[in-house]
Write a structure and sequence with these properties.
By secondary structure, this protein is an all-alpha fold. It has one domain. Helices cover 52% and strands 0% of the residues. Helix 1 runs antiparallel to helix 3. It is elongated, with a radius of gyration of 19 Å. This is Flagellar basal-body rod protein FlgB. InterPro entries: Flag_bb_rod_N (IPR001444). Keywords: Cell projection, Cilium, Flagellum. One of its GO terms (cellular component) is bacterial-type flagellum basal body.
């Protein structure tokens, strides 16, 4: 039953995406002193979700209004100044990216938890 609910599938995908972001941030921080290392990043969840398709709003009745897509919030690009050894890692930028990934993960878990609460309430438990 749970696999048929898009809310749980989306929350799970968001948590996995946040995990990928924090892993990439950790790799960037670990290579902060590696000569020639270039910062790598994971696309935002919104971009990944849109690339996967199925982002159109569902219209369950003909009288419902068609939704308009919200403007995409661009991910803040890291314009790190390159160090003399060719490394482009900025520890400050990576710290902000880690906090943002942690916030995304917490949001995914909150959505999942509220979905479970709603499901339990609807079946009387």
């Amino acid at each position: 039953m749970q696999k048929g609910l898009d809310l749980f599938r989306t929350a799970s995908a968001m948590a996995v995406h946040a995990s990928q972001r924090i892993n990439q941030t950790a790799i960037n921080i670990a290579n902060a002193d590696t000569p020639g290392y270039r910062v790598q990043s994971v696309a935002s969840f919104a971009d990944s979700y849109q690339a996967a398709g199925n982002t159109a709003l569902l219209q369950t009745r003909s009288g419902h209004l068609q939704g308009q897509a919200l403007p995409a919030l661009g991910a803040h690009a890291a314009l790190a100044e390159e160090s003399p050894n060719g490394n482009s890692v900025s520890l400050e930028t990576e710290a902000v990216a880690a906090i943002d990934a942690q916030r995304e993960h917490t949001q995914a878990l909150t959505i999942y938890r509220h979905g479970l609460t709603l499901l339990r309430t609807s079946i009387g438990g």
